[in-house]
Structure prediction request, 266 residues.
Amino acid sequence: MFVSVLLKFLYPPPVSVVIMAMSVINVLSMCNAGWMEVKGKNMQYSKLLRADDIKAKEKPRVSGKVGMIAVYTPAFLAGVFSLVAFPLGDLRFTLLRGAITTHFFKRLVEVLFVHKFSAMMETEAMFAISTSYFLTSATMIYNQQLMLQLQEPSVDLKYIGAALFLVGIGGNFYHHFLLSKLRNKGEKQYKIPQGGLFSLVICPHYFFEIIGFWGISCISQTVFSVCVGLSTTFYLMGRSHATRRWYQSKFEDFPKDVKALIPFIF
Prediction:
């Protein structure tokens, strides 16, 4: 009964051990990463970098801007390559590839022209995140290509997914822009963010990123894309919790009613 209901919304899983393994690995690894964030064992970039840890300082690092360019470029190129290499396909396949490419293109534009970096990034974290984004994007595209010969789910979510994706990248960009305006030229100190949904949650950019990835999942309507949506949600819940804890430790006047990720709830 449950499976029959699911199949109204999702394509059946492909007969591919690799994709099924990637689905499981994606969810388990990202859930673990999110839990590590909650426990204080944070991915080493941005404000959560262990700046005063002597052992951590011995690890190779790059500037935040260089690290983030390396993080997003492979996934962006995977999207571009798919658009060039597979020009044919249905609307869903085109929307999926377009959404993935647009997401990472936006992130690169933000890194180059919007964000103001002050912290370093461990190369270990850079390679881990870059590899995760690339493999996830490439697998979603490949998985969707396998679906081209199958009958579509009876409940079509691709237009809802496209709308969610646009809301997600729009809200994410807006709050990244607000963050960039906190510092004047040359300033490196952190401040409590203001404006937008920052009055309700400390990580509204993560909130909208989750919406964007669930938009991609609805466009795709595959088991793997749902796993990506779940894993992104779990990790960013942990990261936002750690971020809120960091702000509380640095600012005595941090508002107690400002949540981590979901307004009024979490």
Observations:
- The CA atoms of residues 76 and 104 lie 5 Å apart.
